[in-house]
Specification:
Blueprint (H helix, E strand, L loop, with lengths): L4 E7 L2 E10 L4 H11 L7 E12 L1 H18 L4 E3 L3 H9 L7 E3 L10 E2 L7 H16 L3 H16 L1
Helix pairs in contact: 1-2, 2-4, 4-5
């Protein structure tokens, strides 16, 4: 499997995040910063998360994507779209309850040519732990299965 990266573009109020390869915790600080950037934009019309080249995605990243959707609905009343053509990724999204917080489609959406990699961000261990905890709390709020799956992890992170 390849090292992961997240690419980003904004075009005419549409924000596109493309996840490539193995998307893991190491990319979450940059993703979280980009989520904050999206919601400070004045001309906001849509969010598209392209997972067509995603090989794997960890639960912290999924939690941040759920955060993105929740903020989008709260702040601008929009349900983001996730594009996935990988059956394994599609099953994972369904099992996590993402069909409740995203429009999930299986046909690639033309992506702007101006996608660029998110810059890496060095964060302290405490900041990273806080982001992991927040992401998993959000996932737990999506459904009972997630609540059960991540209860022990969240409890452990709360104790540290």
């Amino acid at each position: 499997m390849s090292t992961g990266r997240i690419q980003f573009a904004e075009q005419s109020g549409t924000f596109v995040l493309k996840f490539v390869g193995e998307v893991r915790l190491t990319l979450c600080s940059a993703l979280d910063a980009t989520i904050e950037k999206i919601f400070t934009a004045l001309n906001f019309s849509a969010i598209v998360i392209d997972l067509t080249e995603t090989e794997s995605i960890d639960s912290t990243t999924l939690g941040l994507l759920a955060k993105l959707s929740i903020l989008s609905r709260q702040k601008v009343g929009l349900l983001p779209t996730v594009v996935t053509t990988n059956p394994d990724i599609s099953r994972l999204l369904q099992s996590m309850g993402f069909d409740q917080v995203f429009n999930i489609v299986d046909r690639p959406i033309p992506c702007p040519d101006c996608l660029s990699d998110l810059p890496s961000q060095d964060q302290s261990e405490d900041v990273v732990r806080s982001k992991v905890l927040e992401a998993h709390r959000i996932l737990m709020g999506l459904n009972d299965s997630n609540r059960e799956a991540f209860r022990d992890l969240v409890s452990a992170l709360e104790r540290t």
